[in-house]
Amino acid sequence: MIELDFEKGGGLVPVIVQDNETEEVLMLAYMNREAWLKTLETGRAYYFSRSRNTLWNKGEKSGHVQLIRDILIDCDADTVLLKVQQIGGAACHTGYRSCFHRRLSAGKVETVGERVFSPENVYK
């Protein structure tokens, strides 16, 4: 098995998450070695939460889990691309399908995604 280069990023590697069917980019997250190994072991996405400084099982609270369908590793072994089946319709904790739901256009930010769920109802 390939060993990721966690040292270059201070123990973390960036992870781009993409819908396996639509190829829509859903989010960017980070993994430490523990999250990487749990992801490989379970077939579900695990990340390292930098804000909470802890392992994060995607969808553990919301039910919006990510099932791994493919894993690609870049040429330097310091970035991962996960292709996932997004369960529950949303990857973003703000309720949108993708974390990339805002577009900069003519110097203004516009929302281009639709909210799938209300965070207030999900994260009580």
Distance between the termini: 40 Å
Low-confidence runs of at least 5 consecutive residues: none
Roughly what fraction of the amino acids lie in strands? 35-45%
CATH architecture: Roll
- How many E strands? 8
Explain how this protein is built.
- Helix content is 11%, strand content 36%.
- The protein has 124 residues and is mostly beta strands.
- It has a single domain (13-116), classed as Ubiquitin-like (UB roll).
- It has a 4-stranded mixed β-sheet. Strands 3-4 form a two-stranded antiparallel ribbon. The chain has a two-stranded antiparallel ribbon with strand order 7-8.
- It is globular.
Outline the fold blueprint:
Layout: E1 13-19, E2 25-31, H1 33-42, E3 46-49, E4 54-57, E5 66-73, E6 80-86, E7 102-105, E8 108-111, H2 119-122
Parallel strand pairs: 1-6
Antiparallel strand pairs: 1-2, 3-4, 5-6, 7-8
Keywords:
Ubiquitin-like (UB roll), four-stranded mixed beta sheet, two-stranded antiparallel ribbon, 2 helices
Brief characterization of the structure:
By secondary structure, the chain is mostly beta strands. It is built from 2 helices and 8 strands, in the order E-E-H-E-E-E-E-E-E-H. Helix content is 11%, strand content 36%.
